[in-house]
Backbone:
C-alpha cells in the first residue's frame, strides 16, 4: 500500500519573508547569473528577510539550467518553469501568486534594471505609499524604436486612466502585498497594476531609477507589443467603468444606432414626400435597416452581458464594492444553506 502523502500547509506568517523579488525571464542565459549575483548582494545590504522568484517563461536556451544550478546554491531562490512561452504578464502573475513577502518587487531579467534601486523603492513605501513605480528618466534605448512610442503610450495611459505616471513600462516597482490581492492579469496588463491599485484606493507614487544598456541577449519588445498595450488599455478602461453595468455600453451603442436609423429613415421619407428621390434611388432605406439590426443586436448583447455579470458576482459570492473599514460593525448573519 502506498504511503499517504503528507498534507501541504501554507507557510506561517513567521516563515514568510519581508520582501519578494519576482523576475520573469525568457532566453536570458547570459544575464541570469550576473543579475542574481548582483541582486542577492543588494538584498543582503537591506537587512530584510527576502526571497527571489524567477519565472522561466518557456526559455529555449540554457536559462533554466543556470537557474537550477543557482537555486542549489541559494535556497532563497525559487524557480518556476513554464512548459511554453506564455508572455511576460503570465510569468509576472505566476510569480506574484507564488510570492509570500509583505512587499513584492517585480523587475526585468535583462540586467537593465538596477538592483541597487530596490532600497530606494522600499524607502518610499515606508513613507506611507502602497505602490512605488520606477521611472527610467534617462532611458538607455533607441529614441525612435523604443523611447518615442513609450512616451506616447505613457501619456495616453495617464490621460485615459487618470493615474499620472511617466513610465508604465518600467517593470521595477514595489507593491504592498494587499494591493495585489485581487489583481488578475491577462494580455499585457502587468504594466497597468498601478492603475488597478489606484482605483482600489492605494496611494501611488513614482521614483526615478537607474536604467542600463543591455549587454547580452536580445530585446523581446517590438511594435506589435505597443499595439497590444493599446488594446489592453481599452479593456482596462471598460472594466473600470462598466464591469458591473455593461448594458450602459452596449445599450448606449444600440440606442445610438436606432437614432441613426430614425434619422436615415426620416431623410429618406423627406426625399420621397418632396418628390426629390424615390426609396430605390438612395441607400438610406438600407442604412435604416442596418442601423435597426445593429441596435437590436447591441441591446441583446448588453442584456446577455448583464446576465453574465450577475451570474459571476452571485456565484462567486463577490460584491461590486470594496470596504476600507467598518466601525462598530454588527455581527454578520450566516448565509442560508443552499438546497
Residues:
Amino acid at each position: 500500500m502506498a504511503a499517504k502523502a503528507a498534507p501541504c500547509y501554507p507557510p506561517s506568517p513567521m516563515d514568510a519573508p519581508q520582501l519578494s523579488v519576482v523576475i520573469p525571464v525568457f532566453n536570458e542565459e547570459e544575464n541570469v547569473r550576473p543579475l542574481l549575483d548582483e541582486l542577492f548582494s543588494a538584498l543582503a545590504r537591506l537587512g530584510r528577510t527576502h526571497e527571489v522568484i524567477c519565472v522561466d517563461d518557456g526559455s529555449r536556451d540554457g536559462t533554466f539550467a543556470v537557474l537550477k544550478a543557482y537555486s542549489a546554491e541559494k535556497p532563497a531562490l525559487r524557480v518556476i518553469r513554464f512548459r511554453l512561452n506564455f508572455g511576460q504578464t503570465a510569468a509576472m502573475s505566476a510569480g506574484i501568486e507564488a510570492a509570500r513577502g509583505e512587499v513584492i518587487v517585480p523587475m526585468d531579467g535583462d540586467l537593465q534594471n538596477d538592483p541597487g534601486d530596490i532600497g530606494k523603492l522600499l524607502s518610499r513605501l515606508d513613507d506611507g505609499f502602497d505602490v512605488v513605480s520606477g521611472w527610467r528618466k534617462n532611458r538607455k534605448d533607441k529614441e525612435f524604436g523604443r523611447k518615442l512610442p513609450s512616451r506616447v503610450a505613457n501619456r495616453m495611459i495617464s490621460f485615459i486612466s487618470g493615474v499620472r505616471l511617466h513610465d508604465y513600462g518600467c517593470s521595477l516597482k514595489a507593491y504592498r502585498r494587499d494591493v495585489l490581492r485581487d489583481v488578475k492579469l491577462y494580455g499585457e496588463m502587468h504594466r497597468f497594476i498601478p492603475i488597478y491599485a489606484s482605483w482600489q484606493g492605494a496611494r501611488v507614487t513614482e521614483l526615478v531609477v537607474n536604467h542600463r544598456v543591455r549587454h547580452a541577449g536580445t530585446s523581446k519588445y517590438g511594435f506589435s507589443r505597443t499595439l497590444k498595450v493599446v488594446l489592453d488599455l481599452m479593456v482596462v478602461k471598460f472594466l473600470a467603468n462598466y464591469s458591473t453595468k455593461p448594458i450602459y455600453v452596449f445599450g448606449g451603442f444600440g440606442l445610438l444606432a436606432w437614432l441613426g436609423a430614425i434619422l436615415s429613415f426620416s431623410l429618406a421619407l423627406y426625399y420621397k414626400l418632396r418628390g426629390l428621390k424615390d426609396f430605390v434611388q438612395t441607400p438610406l432605406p438600407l442604412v435604416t435597416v442596418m442601423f435597426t439590426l445593429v441596435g437590436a443586436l447591441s441591446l441583446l448583447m448588453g442584456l446577455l452581458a448583464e446576465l453574465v455579470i450577475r451570474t459571476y458576482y452571485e456565484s462567486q459570492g463577490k460584491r461590486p464594492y470594496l470596504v476600507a473599514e467598518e466601525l462598530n460593525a454588527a455581527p454578520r448573519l450566516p448565509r442560508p444553506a443552499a438546497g
Observations:
- The CA atoms of residues 19 and 116 lie 14 Å apart.
- The chain has two domains: 19-241, 247-316.
- Residues 1-13 have pLDDT under 50 and may be disordered.
